[in-house]
Amino acid sequence: MDKIIVRGGSQLNGTVKVEGAKNAVLPVIAASIIASEGKSILKEVPALADVNTISEVIRHMNADVTLGENQVTVDASNQLKTEAPFEYVRKMRASVLVMGPLLARYGHAKVALPGGCAIGSRPLDQHLKGFEAMGAKVNVGNGYIEAFTEGRLKGARIYFDVPSVGATENVMMAAALAEGKTVLENCAKEPEIVDLANYLNKMGAKVIGAGTETIRIEGVEKLYGAEHTIIPDRIEAGSFMVAAAVTRGNVLVKGAEMEHLRSLVAKMEEMGVTIQEEAEGLRVIGPEKLKAVDVKTMPHPGFPTDMQSQMMALMLGAEGTSVLTETVFENRFMHVEEFRRMNAQLKIEGRSVIVEGPSDLQGAEVAATDLRAAAALIIAGLVSEGYTRVTELKHLDRGYVNFAGKLKQLGADIERIDEAPSTETQPNEIIS
Ligand SMILES: CC(=O)N[C@H]1[C@@H](OP(=O)(O)OP(=O)(O)OC[C@H]2O[C@@H](n3ccc(=O)[nH]c3=O)[C@H](O)[C@@H]2O)O[C@H](CO)[C@@H](O)[C@@H]1O
Ligand SMILES: C=C(OP(=O)(O)O)C(=O)O
């Protein structure tokens, strides 16, 4: 089994470059199949397991996909199959994002239900409500969601009950090829939604308002392949920012965009961290002593749930009591037990974790419970006494390119040991 071994005590210094955003590239690759003519050339694509999975999904549908170095080319002008089977969706729930493009282009989509996962139940009701409002019939049964429509989808006014990133993206893609105008209200406002809208517009779509709570889409009859560069990964950037701060280091995170990271920057500054905007990114300078803070995760522009566990690692190094409240997912505290194995002083109270710092962290054997927990445990290992061994790296590989290698370049005492797969590992294990 692969593991990362970290020895605590090194300060991080230097420069690290972030990759293209996982949460932007997955919807963009899904959207590429909406083009019935022309090729899409996607740049700054990170070499992640999830990118391979979404590429496999659309290849299975008969799209031509070429993976190059940080580049993916998609030609979806062939007649596509309209089904995404369980073997793909179980690996990565973002596979459901092919539903909007398929339904809009072919009037049919059949996608396996992803099921629950490590961070919560993650329902799809808002995606389906959007498709139904546009005239689709939706059936859920035998482990699949099937949607179909006679003729084109019809533009509609849709109010989302919760600002869901995936539902906003899926319905926005469907509306791009629908007949007439669609107005989406109470949309998620994440930067990745803006990136997707920009790509759709390059393909010939007419989408305005992405990044605000109301998105207006004038449906068009046909979309074409387009060239697009993926935005930098704000969560990878944030993970390195936290790692720099907790080790009292001085790191330039190249590609980190202040505009995408304001909530994290504000909280880190409250903790005493210096963050400077430079031409190439954000410089993070850790203080001698970190101060405790309270943080609540919220949809963008609030504090991102995908930074919750890394923030917990930073709080463990702060003086005093911090409270971290998770409001987006109901079960995203699995890493707490692992942190406890490292002697962290943490208490779960409902949807909050009370963090008593500074914890006297000790190296231990820990297992990643989801991809952000993997990063958080490694970050905690950077400031623990002795050696921390982190396993279940399949989670890490979904969302981080060469995380250990990049930390090592910054001065961390860290190694990744690749061992032959154990007999316990199932090849198609559910990982999201
Ligand atoms: C590939 C990708 O971009 N993943 C991100 C995306 O996931 P994802 O798009 O799955 O997350 P959502 O924004 O949809 O989920 C937000 C909340 O809405 C709820 N909900 C969602 C859909 C729905 O139909 N009904 C419903 O109730 C969810 O249970 C959750 O409580 O946004 C999450 C929230 O920022 C991030 O943690 C994930 O990293
Ligand atoms: C939860 C995450 O991703 P996904 O929605 O792909 O599971 C994440 O990126 O932290």
TrEMBL record:
Pfam families (alphabetical): EPSP_synthase
Keywords in alphabetical order: Cell cycle, Cell division, Cell shape, Cell wall biogenesis/degradation, Cytoplasm, Peptidoglycan synthesis, Pyruvate, Transferase
Domain of life: Bacteria
Location(s) in or outside the cell: Cytoplasm
GO molecular function term, any single one: UDP-N-acetylglucosamine 1-carboxyvinyltransferase activity
Residue intervals of the Enolpyruvate transferase domain: 6-407
Residues that span the membrane, as ranges: none
Substrates-to-products reaction catalysed: phosphoenolpyruvate + UDP-N-acetyl-alpha-D-glucosamine = UDP-N-acetyl-3-O-(1-carboxyvinyl)-alpha-D-glucosamine + phosphate
Major localization listed first in the record, in broad terms: cytoplasm
Documented EC number(s): 2.5.1.7
Active-site residues annotated for this sequence: C117
Binding site residues for phosphoenolpyruvate: K22, N23
Entries under HAMAP family matching the protein: MurA
Annotated family: Belongs to the EPSP synthase family. MurA subfamily.
Annotated protein name in UniProt: UDP-N-acetylglucosamine 1-carboxyvinyltransferase
